[in-house]
């Protein structure tokens, strides 16, 4: 189909493998890069997107997935991020159902398999992008660049910036999007399989490509950009369109546009199909999502809130340069780049302006070569490389709408395809000029090995929150969220003294960080440092008046200070801002019990159990209060109601047994105590079995270590 073009592999000193073996090598190396993340925990955003996402539970109707965002919130809600990824959430739900709960191993294994699959597909994709599209008479596609396509696929497979997508479970959205993104591209190429002269094509495969693009978008928003890239590929590769020549004809109002390739070979018709499909997909998504944009705060993306257009433009371009640097030198990686991690550029005297100049100098140089070079092969590869680098990045560029991050490594997953094309083409040009090609090949092999080691190291950091958060301290020491997360992790492990240090640093870096104030106030409350706790919590609700958790904690502190009226007001303010707040009703009940307002206390605890039927403390307090006030029959009824909902709760059994004893129902009391005893014994026997299994597990683990040492 295509005319013979200069072979990119001709001057490249690299491994030449059959297609099958090339794909096996890519799959194996991509697996080795991220294999050590398979048994990692749920970390960072995994908690909200998976553990706290009700859409994963079997009780939630499947239809709700199509009306909720990625985090399980209704798309119509003002607090929704409008990230509409129902197919990704569906795969999480399948993971959850097959595993029988929240066991991270299955989630991680699927992510690793997806990345390996995508890396293998990249061999075919790069063979088309670097070598062109050509079929045999039997319709079999030829790989005209086996060496460079293998190199580009290896560069993609081992790029450390992909670690967040593979080792972080929520990165599944990017992986699924990339999978269908590539399938859409390969499907579009199939439309020209029976094409001998370039005039015939399959409408079926064009439509399949549009559908796969829609599926990619239902996994993550970036997926829709494949339709634009298919159009670019059609124009450059299928129609061999000279963009500069076309622009000149348009400027001179030349009517011979057909000779320029715009109308021949059905290009205009196919682009119309792609544009119509894309517009329809976006319209449907817009109707489902609603017209309101997502609500982000200044700490998420400070540049987008700058009053000056100049400041916004300068900082957006600086962010682009940092993304480019992460592709070139992915050494400094961080799970979060917001909250002061990258201070705003507010003046042209800021030395960081150099990064912008370097970025645009390189881009302009590449664009000029892509448009003006007399070598059509060079024009095609550079334009495709720039297209795959820039177009998938556009949804994250802040150009069309505000995004909720400064830099996100996960959004570079697809743009890295363009980087790999440009790197490989640059390597081929150097190889053509170099006298000692093998030294150049060894240098590239060294880069690949360094990237493999960096991937393995970074994957190990994503295995637990403690390692992940601490790894960010050296990369983004000015990021308040990093210090907050380290402090939260320490507090969860019971190390309150160390947690206080990091919470204080988070508040120092960002004096309006209400979540850090709330958590610090909680710890100080538990340490009985009530005055400072009250000051912090009061400041938090002053900064964010609808912060329900801070209002509740402020009420607890005020209750401890015996300022009961203020505490009651704080509790009701919390409930006003969060209607379904069982813990707040529970604390309100405790306040009423301290004030001997027994009916109000029982009503508050009843509200807590209605909102959260498994709220054991609220049930238990109702039983005890009814017991203490002599309402034994009512206490027994409440106790039995609670045990129907929480049948294995030992504290409820004990409280109900006491009530039965006072009611002289000794047989029932004995039955309750026997049941409590056997439950406790069962728990102890399970713990004993787990302890007995430890030596076996250690022996198996030791065998794996010895086997690993022998193999290496």
From TrEMBL:
The UniProt transmembrane annotation reads 20-38, 112-132, 144-163, 169-189, 201-218, 267-286, 353-372, 384-405, 411-430, 693-711
Which Gene3D superfamilies does this entry report, sorted A to Z?
Tetratricopeptide repeat domain
SMART domains of this UniProt entry?
TPR (SM00028)
- What UniProt keywords are attached to this protein's entry? Endoplasmic reticulum, Membrane, Repeat, TPR repeat, Transferase, Transmembrane, Transmembrane helix
Task: Provide the topology term for how it sits in the membrane.
Answer: Multi-pass membrane protein
Q: Which GO terms describe its molecular function?
A: dolichyl-phosphate-mannose-protein mannosyltransferase activity
- Keyword set includes Lyase: no
Domain DUF1736: residue ranges: 292-364
Q: Where are the TPR repeats?
A: 480-513, 514-547, 582-615
SUPFAM superfamilies (alphabetical):
TPR-like
Its BP terms in the Gene Ontology are: endoplasmic reticulum unfolded protein response
Q: Which GO terms describe its cellular component?
A: endoplasmic reticulum; membrane
Q: Give the pathway listed in the UniProt entry for this protein.
A: Protein modification; protein glycosylation
Q: List where in the cell it is found.
A: Endoplasmic reticulum; Membrane
Q: Which PROSITE patterns match?
A: TPR (PS50005), TPR_REGION (PS50293)
Q: What is its EC number?
A: 2.4.1.109
Q: What PANTHER family is this protein classified in?
A: PROTEIN O-MANNOSYL-TRANSFERASE TMTC4, PTHR44227
Species this chain originates from: Otus sunia (Oriental scops-owl)
Q: Does the keyword Acyltransferase apply?
A: no
Q: Which InterPro entries match?
A: O-mannosyl-transferase_TMTC, TMTC_DUF1736, TPR-like_helical_dom_sf, TPR_rpt
| Family designation | Belongs to the TMTC family.
User: Know the name of this protein?
Assistant: dolichyl-phosphate-mannose--protein mannosyltransferase
The UniProt entry lists the main location of this chain as: endoplasmic reticulum
């Amino acid at each position: 189909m295509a005319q013979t073009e200069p072979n990119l592999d001709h001057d490249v000193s690299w491994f030449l493998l059959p297609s099958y073996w090339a794909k096996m090598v890519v799959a194996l190396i991509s697996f080795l890069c991220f294999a050590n993340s398979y048994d990692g925990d749920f970390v960072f955003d995994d908690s909200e997107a998976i553990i706290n996402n009700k859409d994963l539970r079997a009780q939630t109707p499947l239809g709700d997935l199509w009306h909720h965002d990625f985090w399980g919130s209704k798309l119509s809600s003002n607090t929704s991020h409008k990230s509409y990824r129902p197919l990704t959430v569906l795969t999480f739900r399948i993971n959850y159902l097959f595993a029988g709960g929240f066991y991270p191993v299955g989630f991680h294994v699927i992510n690793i398999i997806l990345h390996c699959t995508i890396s293998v597909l990249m061999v075919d994709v790069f063979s088309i992008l670097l070598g062109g599209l050509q079929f045999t008479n039997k319709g079999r596609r030829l790989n005209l660049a086996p060496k460079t396509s293998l190199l580009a696929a290896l560069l993609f497979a081992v790029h450390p910036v992909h670690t967040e997508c593979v080792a972080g479970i929520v990165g599944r959205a990017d992986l699924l999007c990339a999978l269908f993104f590539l399938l859409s591209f390969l499907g579009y190429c199939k439309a020209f399989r029976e094409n001998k002269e370039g005039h015939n094509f399959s409408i079926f495969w064009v439509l399949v490509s549009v559908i796969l693009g829609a599926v990619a978008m239902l996994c993550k928003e970036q997926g829709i950009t494949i339709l634009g890239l298919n159009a670019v590929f059609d124009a450059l590769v299928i129609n061999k369109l000279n963009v500069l020549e076309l622009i000149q004809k348009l400027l001179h109002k030349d009517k011979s546009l057909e000779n320029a390739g715009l109308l021949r070979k059905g290009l205009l018709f196919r682009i119309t199909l792609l544009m119509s499909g894309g517009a329809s997909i976006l319209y449907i998504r817009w109707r489902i999502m609603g017209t309101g944009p997502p609500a982000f705060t200044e700490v998420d993306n400070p540049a987008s809130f700058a009053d000056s257009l100049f400041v916004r433009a300068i900082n957006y371009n600086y962010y682009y340069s940092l993304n480019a640097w992460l592709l070139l030198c992915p050494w400094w990686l961080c799970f979060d780049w917001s909250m002061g991690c990258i201070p705003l550029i507010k003046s042209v005297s800021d030395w960081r302006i150099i990064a912008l100049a370097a970025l645009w100098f390189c881009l302009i140089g590449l664009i000029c070569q892509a448009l003006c070079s007399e070598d059509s092969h060079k024009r095609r590869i550079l334009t495709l490389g720039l297209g795959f680098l820039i177009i998938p990045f556009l949804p994250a560029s802040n150009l069309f709408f505000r995004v909720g991050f400064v830099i996100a490594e996960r959004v570079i997953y697809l743009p890295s395809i363009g980087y790999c094309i440009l790197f490989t083409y640059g390597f081929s040009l150097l190889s053509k000029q170099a006298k000692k090609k093998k030294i150049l090949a060894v240098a590239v092999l060294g880069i690949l090995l360094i990237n493999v080691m960096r991937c393995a190291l970074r994957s190990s950091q994503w295995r637990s929150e403690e390692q992940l958060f601490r790894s960010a301290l050296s990369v983004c020491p000015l990021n308040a969220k990093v210090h907050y997360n380290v402090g939260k992790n320490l507090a969860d492990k019971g190390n309150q003294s160390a947690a206080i240090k990091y919470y204080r640093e988070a508040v120092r870096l960002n004096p309006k960080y209400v979540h850090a104030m709330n958590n610090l106030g909680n710890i100080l409350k538990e340490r009985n440092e009530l005055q400072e706790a009250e000051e912090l919590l009061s400041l938090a609700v002053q900064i964010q008046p609808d912060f329900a958790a801070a209002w509740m904690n402020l009420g607890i502190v005020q209750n401890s200070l015996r300022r009961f009226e203020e505490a009651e007001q704080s509790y009701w303010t919390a409930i006003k801002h969060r209607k379904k707040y069982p813990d707040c009703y529970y604390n309100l009940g405790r306040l009423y019990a301290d004030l001997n307002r027994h009916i109000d206390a029982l009503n508050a605890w009843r509200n807590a159990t209605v909102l959260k039927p498994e709220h054991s403390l609220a049930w238990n307090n109702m039983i005890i209060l009814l017991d203490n006030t002599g309402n034994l029959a009512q206490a027994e009824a409440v106790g039995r109601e609670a045990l129907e909902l929480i049948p294995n709760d030992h504290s409820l059994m004990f409280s109900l047994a006491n009530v039965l004893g006072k009611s002289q129902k000794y047989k029932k009391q004995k039955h309750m105590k026997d049941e409590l005893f056997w439950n406790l014994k069962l728990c102890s026997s399970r713990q004993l079995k787990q302890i007995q299994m430890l030596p076996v597990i250690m022996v198996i683990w030791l065998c794996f270590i010895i086997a690993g040492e022998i193999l290496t």
